[in-house]
Amino acid sequence: MNAPLRPKLKVLSNELIDKIIGEAVELLETTGVMIEGKKILEFLQELGVRTDPSRGRAYIERETVHKCLKSAPSTIKLYDREGALTATLEGDNVYFNPGSAALYILDHPSREMRKPVTADLVRLTRLTNSLKHINLQSTALISTDIPQAMSDWYRLYIGFLYCSKPMVTGIFAEESLPLMKDMLVMLRGDETRLAEKPLAIFDACPSPPLKWSALTCQSVIECARWGIPSEIISMPMAGATSPVTLAAALVQHTAENLSGVVISQLVKPGAPVIYGGSPSVLDMRKGTTPMGAIETMLLNCAYCQIGKRLGLPVHAYMGLSDAKILDSQAGLEGGMSVLLAALAGVNVVSGPGMLEFESCQSLEKLVIDDEICGMAYRLLEGVSQRDEPLATELLKDVKPDTNFLSSPHTLRWFREELYFPSIIERRTHGEWLKQGSKSLADKAAEKVEELLQKEVSPPLASDLQKGLRELALSESRTHGLDKLPLSE
Amino acid sequence: MKEMNREEDIFEKMKESLLKGDKDEAIRLAKLSLDIGINPLDSIDHGLTPGIQQVGKLWEEGEYFLPQLVIAAECMKAALKVLEPALSEKGEKRQEIGRVVIGTAEGDIHDIGKTLVATMLSANGFEIIDMGADVPIIQMVNRAIEEKADLICISALLTTTMLGQKRLIELLQEKGIRQKFKVMVGGAPVSLQWAKDIQADSYGENVIEAVSEAKRLVGA
Ligand code: B12
User: Fold this and answer.
1) Among A168, A216, A221, A362, which residue carries the largest CB count within 10 Å?
2) Contact B206 A287 (CB under 8 A)
3) By CB neighbour count within 10 A (0-12 exposed, 13-18 middle, 19+ buried), where does A240 fall?
4) A438 vs A363, A446, B131, CA distance in Å?
5) Contact A103/B116, CB-based, under 8 Å?
6) Which atom of ligand 1 is closest in space to residue A235's alpha carbon?
């Protein structure tokens, strides 16, 4: 029997990849990376990195890069809140999670983008918990009904109260990190278990070009210490914060990522680190950062190929659209991008649900994207050989009136061969009319409500729930909040 | 009559240098204009200003792209640098429609939008003092006082650093100098409602709105 071919997309030749890596490594040695904060620079010096404090730069030797690439793991496993294995980030495995930290939510009934509150975050989190193809959750919305200084840990807290999937998160303020770690440790039991069974990934964005802010560098360092996976989100914006040519932007992206890998590995060899990013092109007419641009998608596929050649798990921001409502653009950009991510074998895909340049989340789009992700998974399964011979036996007795609907062979295989979408329109025209002539967006809205009616399963164990709530409440008091939203 | 033609010829070429984004040519023409005794104010009013306005118009119409716009603004800056010493020698001043102190709020390093706004304001005749990103509020206020600014523009891209915009206005109030400056806010998480809530004078969603609002605020 022939094994199915997994459809794959490659956009760079190996020669070009090696050239890109070569230039990036050279840049790290000669130009170095800028590091904000004297302390961090001193710390890197202690770890053996050549630094120039007067210029705020660290220069990374070629040998160091190679050594760190060797020690960085090629597989990272993620476990859910209850400790079950959810994702194995390696090879061409693909896992989706909603794009993170949206400033707005698209309100379906009014079609308006508005500022989210805790209730929105809870709905999104519960929805994520129930969607089949969205394998991981993320701290996806900024609630505006709490003091912003507590926003980082608050999103994590809500996430684990209402969803058991592993988390993709990150920090906007250094103070948030220890508390977020405490929450993760509480959920796992102790630090060792948290390191053994990672529950959350922390995103860290270098500041293009070739710079690390103190905040994000610190995040990589602390996470490495604790064995928490870091995801390096290098985001050259071609034509603005990086050269406009895609190949040059990729060199910058590679150098930024490699510097992140080096920092994490020097802190602790073997620390889990993901080769990621959120590059884009700059729209030269409107000055915006289109995530649905075909060149943005091309950059993503390209750097993931580079990350794979370096032997690291890879991440990308894909599945997003820049549309303002759930129109054709939202569907076509989301669809193209999810499909490309799947074909490129992106291990962690952040983006479903997102609109408007990474700044808006839509529950309805998340449901539609879940459907698209399902289709993408089906595509990846490819064409399987189920029988030997393939068809000769099945076709040898055909007559003019043969149909296969009643054949046992159909009954045996149709579930494996076919993907069943839930809201994609496939009814006859008359039936569609009879049932209200609804658009996909409207059907998605109904599906959202239907899924949210159902109970969250399984709920967080009551002792952990209590502990988590107490921790959150005592912390929120330091921000002058005596009662958390939605708590009786 | 011949002189007249010559002048107009140079103004036309100045305009063209901006449209083409040719910095060396813009500098050369500025020097040439001084050499042959053209009043620098005339060069600005009839050459550079119409040139940059034309570029801005072409950009708004979708004909020109951002790099052309930004490079034209740089050409203009370079030419002005040549003309300005001659202006002050004559005791004259370029007619500017307003002085602007601009920066991104403390703790925030997003500066692309802020820089675009600064570039466009400058192209539209504002004098710009760009303090960069991650600027402490107190420094912004002090600079605005020093420079006798008309307008303070503060950008914020993070929900946390947006609070800096509020603090800036509070600080102006505390110092009793709120009426001395107009304050305009912007950035992805910022909205008209937020601007109203914190009693800012205006808000701009994008570059075009930033320019029209700035003009409105200074009565230009
Ligand atoms: C590029 C980018 C970065 C780059 C910035 C590079 C640079 N030199 O500026 C880098 C990688 C450094 C970065 C870092 C981070 N970023 Co960032 N970033 C973005 C991104 C993708 C685009 C911003 C941009 O440049 N847009 C293009 C410009 C032209 O548009 P603009 O800035 O909006 O400006 C326009 C208007 O807003 C207006 N305007 C702007 N300023 C002003 C001022 C005035 C007075 C007026 C009138 C108008 C005006 O006019 C401009 C032109 O039209 C946004 C997503 C988004 N949709 O905005 C996230 C985003 C802003 N970042 C975000 C985050 C979380 C971060 C980090 C905290 C991530 C991390 N953990 O490391 C760090 C923060 C670092 C820090 N301390 O500031 C979040 C913010 C979420 C939140 N709740 O606040 C966003 C929304 C993305 C997301 N959904 O996660 N980021």
Assistant:
1) A362
2) yes
3) buried
4) 17, 10, 52
5) no
6) 11
Q: How far apart are CA B100 and CA B183, in angstroms?
A: 10
CB A280 within 8 A of CB A238: yes
| A4-27 per-residue burial string, b: 16 or more CB within 10 A, e: under 16 | eeeeeeebbeeeebeebbebbbeb
Q: What is the CATH number of the domain that holds B104?
A: 3.40.50.280
Q: Give the closest-approach CA distance of B124 to chain A in angstroms.
A: 18
Is the pTM for the entire model greater than 0.95? Answer: no
Query: Do B124 and B21 share a structural domain?
Result: no
Task: Verify whether ligand 1 is closer than 6 Å to residue B192 (CB atom).
Answer: no
Kindly calculate the radius of gyration of chain B based on its CA atoms and give it in whole angstroms.
19
Helix axes of A14-30 and A294-309: crossing angle, nearest 10 degrees: 80
In angstroms, what CA-CA distances link A181 with A161, A228, A236, A362? 16, 9, 29, 28
Model ipTM value? 0.84
Burial label, A269 (beta-carbon count in 10 A; 0-12, 13-18, 19+): middle
Amino acid of residue B71: I
Q: Which residue has the tokens 């149909």?
A: A403
- Asked if A49 contacts A58 with a C-beta cutoff of 8 angstroms, the reply is yes
Please give the angle made by the CA atoms of B212, B219 and B87, to the nearest 5 degrees.
Answer: 95
B106 and B21 in one domain?
Answer: no
B67 and B148 both lie in a single domain: no
CA distance A66 to A310: 10
Residue B44 dihedral angles phi and psi, to the nearest 5°: -70, -50
Is residue B58 a contact partner of residue B29, using CB atoms and an 8 Å limit?
Answer: no
pLDDT (tens, 9 = 90+) of chain A, 488 residues, equals 888 999 999 999 999 999 999 999 999 999 999 999 899 999 999 999 999 999 999 999 999 999 999 999 999 999 999 999 999 999 999 999 998 889 999 999 999 999 999 999 999 999 999 999 999 999 999 999 999 999 999 999 999 999 999 999 999 888 999 999 999 999 999 999 999 999 999 999 999 999 999 999 999 999 999 999 999 999 999 999 999 999 999 999 999 999 999 999 999 999 999 999 999 999 999 999 999 999 999 999 999 999 999 999 999 999 999 999 999 999 999 999 999 999 999 999 999 999 999 999 999 999 999 999 999 999 999 999 999 999 999 999 999 999 999 999 999 999 999 999 999 999 999 999 999 999 999 999 999 999 999 876 778 999 999 999 999 999 999 999 999 998 64
Distance of CA B164 to the CA centre of its chain: 22
Superfamily the domain A1-488 falls into: Trimethylamine methyltransferase-like (3.20.20.480)
Shared domain for B61 and B102, answered yes or no, is no
Whole-angstrom Cα distance, residue B216 to residue B208?
12
Residue of A115, A139, A146 to mutate, testing the B interface (most B Cβ within 10 Å of its Cβ): A115
Residue B217 falls in which region: left (phi positive, over 0), alpha (psi -120 to 50) or beta: alpha
Please give the Cα distance from A369 to A292 (Å, whole number): 14
Give, for ligand 1, the residue of A172, A217, A242 to mutate: max count of ligand atoms closer than 8 Å to Cβ. A172
